[in-house]
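From the methods appendix. Each design record in this collection lists the tokenized structure first, followed by the designed amino acid sequence. Records were kept in a plain field format so they could be parsed without special tools. The example shown here is representative of the layout used throughout.

RECORD:
FOLD TOKENS (457 positions):
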């Protein structure tokens, strides 16, 4: 079945990409495609994929696979991501997210006489914020409400201001990020270790490259467009947060707990360890205590917990269901022999682990760019990595890390990404204008990442 099934797998990838571009529901598309590939693989004689507890009937086994994917996801990474989503919703509700942004952006005042430098300084500062506020849309809209008016008042053009703000979500990382959590689960590495040992060493050079590139790209385009553009409109500072300044600590509390109570810390003997879900729940109750002290109304504070439950539900229907559907999709690709086909092609044209890694990274970047969703692209192909890495005898983390970053980079240059569309609406520019500003820095960062990361393998 080898080459024929691999061709079918590629045809399914093209069909799924086309349907997603046509705005079909991504969960449904991935789920139906995955089940269809499993049926096709069965008809072609493949036995590569099946449930852990077979029912005795192939038809029923398909639904048993789906049930096992639900069970496995909801008991592990799904619950973790839902807890993250609920916590992010709650800290936004009480104003803690705004307080953190307000606090973190204070250093920009030191550069008030240098508008272009002030603009690009947003990138490294807000990249740190992205670790604590792992919602791309949430962080971007917070920055649009708070930093965008400040940048305009300093003389930064609208398009330059909105470009650096959208760049803030270009590298999705941290133990609270859905993609990072999924990556760490796929390679069976604790989320904190993946963040500290794998993501941070690659983040630093990429952030430097992006900051420098945005400075020159925005300066060039602003000078070029100056005769045809109206001077930057000055806006009133929005006064972003009414919450106490101490609330700025709440969003970073889970990160502090995870690092403090992990293998990275040697402060406790015997060691104390926390997982991400537990850290989120501890931080939630700390936030409730802060609110109780602030409002002195226990009924109102306890009632606000519904924001957390609603946030969990929203994440389940948007992200966790996507992971489950993508899991079936990846199982279908494996059953049709996509990995074996990629390995055969790579052997025929002389590709090694580095070559495969580069191809997969570029493919995910382009997929995220076309779909407008880094999650959809990464969740679909990420689970394939352990098998590919095992075939070449390399660490799974070495292959999945650039794919993780490429997915969020691709979203930053997608004119159909919700983040760009929302930011463009607020800034009164078009999403395509933002894409033009983001394209050169993102491609530069992608190339630097491929060279810097894979040269070490």
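DESIGN:
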């Amino acid at each position: 079945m080898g080459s024929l099934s691999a061709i079918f797998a590629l045809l399914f990838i093209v069909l799924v990409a086309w349907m997603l571009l046509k705005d079909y529901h991504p969960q449904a598309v991935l789920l139906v495609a995955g089940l269809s590939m499993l049926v096709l693989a069965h008809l072609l004689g493949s036995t590569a994929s099946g449930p852990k507890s077979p029912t005795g009937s192939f038809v029923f086994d398909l639904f048993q696979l789906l049930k096992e994917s639900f069970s496995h996801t909801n008991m592990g990474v799904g619950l973790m991501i839902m807890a993250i989503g609920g916590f992010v919703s709650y800290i936004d509700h009480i104003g803690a997210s705004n307080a953190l942004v307000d606090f973190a952006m204070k250093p920009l005042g030191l550069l008030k006489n240098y508008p272009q430098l002030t603009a690009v300084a947003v990138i490294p500062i807000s990249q740190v914020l992205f670790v604590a506020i792992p919602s791309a849309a949430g962080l971007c809209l917070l920055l649009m409400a708070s930093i965008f008016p400040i940048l305009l008042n300093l003389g930064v053009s609208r398009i330059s201001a909105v470009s650096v703000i959208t760049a803030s979500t270009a590298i999705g990382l941290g133990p609270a990020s859905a993609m990072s959590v999924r990556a760490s689960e796929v390679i069976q590495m604790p989320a904190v270790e993946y963040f500290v040992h794998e993501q941070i060493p690659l983040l630093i050079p990429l952030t430097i490259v992006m900051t420098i590139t945005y400075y020159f790209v925005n300066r060039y385009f602003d000078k070029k467009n100056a005769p045809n553009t109206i001077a930057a409109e000055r806006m009133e500072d929005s006064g972003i947060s009414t919450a106490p300044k101490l609330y700025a600590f709440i969003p970073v509390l889970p990160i502090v707990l995870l690092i403090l109570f992990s293998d990275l810390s040697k402060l406790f003997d015997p060691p104390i360890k926390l997982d991400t879900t537990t850290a989120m729940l501890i931080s939630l109750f700390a936030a409730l205590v802060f609110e109780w002290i602030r409002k002195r109304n226990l009924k109102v504070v306890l009632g606000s917990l519904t924001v957390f439950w609603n946030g969990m539900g929203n994440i389940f229907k948007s992200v966790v269901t996507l992971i489950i559907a993508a899991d079936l999709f990846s199982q279908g690709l494996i059953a049709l022999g996509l990995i074996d086909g990629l390995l055969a092609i790579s052997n025929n044209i002389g590709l090694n682990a580095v070559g495969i890694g580069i191809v997969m990274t570029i493919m995910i970047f382009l997929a995220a760019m076309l779909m407008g969703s880094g999650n959809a692209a990464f969740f679909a192909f990420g689970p394939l990595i352990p098998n590919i890495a095992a075939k070449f005898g390399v660490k799974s983390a070495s292959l999945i890390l650039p794919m993780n970053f490429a997915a969020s980079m691709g979203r930053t240059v997608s004119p159909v990404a919700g983040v760009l569309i929302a930011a463009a609406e607020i800034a009164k520019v078009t999403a395509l204008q933002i894409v033009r500003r983001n394209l050169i820095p993102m491609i530069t960062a992608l190339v630097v990442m491929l060279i810097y990361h894979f040269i070490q393998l």
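APPENDIX NOTE: Residues 2-454 form one domain.
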